Amino acid sequence: MDIYRFINSKSIGNYLLFLNYPFNAMEAAWLIYRCHQATIQEKHTAWNELIETMPDCSYRYTESLHDFLRSYMAMENRMIARFRENGPGTFYQDTFQSEKWTDRPPDGYFSDFDHAMHFAKSQMEEDDHWLVCRKLQMNRAVFSGMTAVFNRELEMTNLLCRSLLTEEEAELFSEWENLWFDFPIPFRRGDIVWIPANVHHMKAEGPMVLYSAGIFDKEDQEKRKYLLSQGDETDMCVWAYGIDETSGNMIQVQTENYMDLELYSKPLSGKEKLLQALSDMLRHRCPADIHPWEDNTWEGMEAIRFAQKYNQLLAQGSSG
Questions:
Q1: Does the residue 183 lie in any domain?
Q2: Rounded to the nearest 5 degrees, what angle is found at the Cα of 101, between the Cα atoms of 155 and 194?
Q3: What domain range includes position 264?
Q4: Closest CA to 211 of 236, 232, 191
Q5: DSSP assignment, residue 248?
Q6: Helix and strand tally (H, E) in the chain?
């Protein structure tokens, strides 16, 4: 199985390929689940191949990965059938979205799924990257809904319907959220990174200066042991510093998952150049165990140097 095609970050995928990283079955299953580009059908095909070619394993509350994947795929198939099912009081609404988080207002409602898809096919524009189709159903004056995300070929890539799940189905879904992984990554503190837009995070994040992602300190075995037994996907988040689009001020940024990170290679302009100054400091001057905005001693020593470099960069930008 080519598991690398399911890794969202090209930077991380190429690094793991360089390391010849030995994925276990649970890691491979999670990477398939988290893949933004793969359709649901492609994920099911990959999971079935995993079941046939990789040994079964247990992880925390999951006694058999193979059985879990079979149950999860069966649940998704039921949800897809439920999404496509027409009925009294049911209607669909289409919204087109681009990579820049701009969307065209919904254009009417459709009484059945096929009509909604036919309309979407006829109205898809060059800048549209996703179709978000919402199914709304009124039952006894109570609205319930499901949301599906489709790619440009109108293939389903994501289905959001947690409010309609049974307790057993909700437990299956939450199993993915209870997982934590420590993949090797090619980044270090101070790198300028970004997260491209995707079906889970439809607005690109960055550029930003990386402060924390995963476990930078590989010697911290106690923390790693704890996360392996108790960590979840919230512990795979990214802490960084970026520039607020409205105020132009530097702000602290927290994003969902470090496995979506990419190195930022575009030129920095205007106040974004402040990020380069901070990057230089974190990479070459800031001690690894000191947080630059919380330690007054470090901040006092470096504040003047940092301000001077920032002013110099801004002056260069205004004169260029």
A1: no
A2: 95
A3: 192-319
A4: 191
A5: -
A6: 9, 10
